[in-house]
Write a structure and sequence with these properties.
about 200 residues, alpha+beta, Aminopeptidase
Length: about 200
C-alpha cells in the first residue's frame, strides 16, 4: 500500500486516505468494540456504503489515514469536519481501528498532528470535539494534548440499554504548541538564512 507523508510524528504520520483500504475501514466501523465509542455505532456499513463514506470524507473534509511509521500500516483515521472559513472553527474526530495499536500513544500523536494542520496550515482559531462520557481512554488522550472541557449534551445517545452524555471539549490556536509545522518552517527559514536571502523580485 502506498501512503504519503503529509504530517510526520515520531510514531506515526498522516497520509491522504486510500480507497484501497476500504475493506479494513469496513471491518473497523462494524466492530462493536470500536463502535461503542463512536457516534456511528448504530449504522451498518457494507463495502459500498463505506466506500461512499470514505469518498465523501476525502472530498469534503480534511481527513487523513493514521499510518504507523515502522510498518507503513494504516491503523486508523483522524480529521477535521465542518470547517468554517468565516468563523475559523472545525470539529475534530479520530479513532484507532487496529486494536493492536491501542494504548501506544499513536492516538495522541495523530491528534496533535491533525490539530497542527488545522491551526498552522488551515489557520483555524477553535477546534472542538464530542466524546461519549464513558470513553475514558479518549478523554485522557484529548486532555493530554490540551483540549479543555466546556460542556455536555445530557442523555444524548442511547447505548447498551441507557442514555449517555456527550462531552464537549475544545482548544484554541493560542493554547496549542505546534509539534511539526512550525518547527519545519523554522528549520527551513534558518537554512535559507544560512545561504543568504533569496529574492523573487524581477
Amino acid at each position: 500500500m502506498k501512503y504519503f507523508r503529509k504530517m510526520i510524528g515520531k510514531k506515526c504520520y498522516l497520509s491522504p486516505i486510500s480507497l484501497d483500504d476500504v475493506e479494513r475501514y469496513t471491518e473497523w466501523v462494524n466492530d462493536m468494540e470500536i463502535g461503542q465509542f463512536m457516534l456511528f455505532s448504530a449504522t451498518v456499513f457494507d463495502l459500498d456504503r463505506e466506500r461512499e463514506a470514505l469518498q465523501k470524507l476525502m472530498k469534503e473534509t480534511a481527513s487523513f489515514a493514521i499510518v504507523e511509521n515502522d510498518t507503513n500500516k494504516a491503523v486508523g483515521n483522524s480529521g477535521l469536519f465542518g470547517i468554517s472559513e468565516i468563523h475559523r472553527h472545525a470539529e475534530f474526530g479520530c479513532f484507532i481501528g487496529d486494536k493492536t495499536y491501542w494504548n501506544q500513544g499513536i492516538g495522541a500523536e495523530a491528534t496533535s498532528l491533525t490539530l497542527d494542520y488545522g491551526f498552522n496550515v488551515l489557520n483555524l482559531k477553535n477546534i472542538f470535539l464530542h466524546v461519549v462520557d464513558y470513553n475514558q481512554r479518549a478523554i485522557r488522550c484529548y486532555e493530554k494534548v490540551g483540549f479543555k472541557y466546556v460542556g455536555k449534551h445530557r442523555k444524548y445517545i442511547f447505548m447498551a440499554g441507557q442514555y449517555r452524555d456527550i462531552l464537549i471539549y475544545d482548544l484554541l490556536a493560542d493554547e496549542f504548541d505546534s509539534p511539526y509545522v512550525n518547527k519545519l518552517f523554522a528549520q527551513s527559514t534558518s537554512e535559507d538564512a544560512g545561504r543568504g536571502k533569496i529574492s523573487f523580485e524581477p
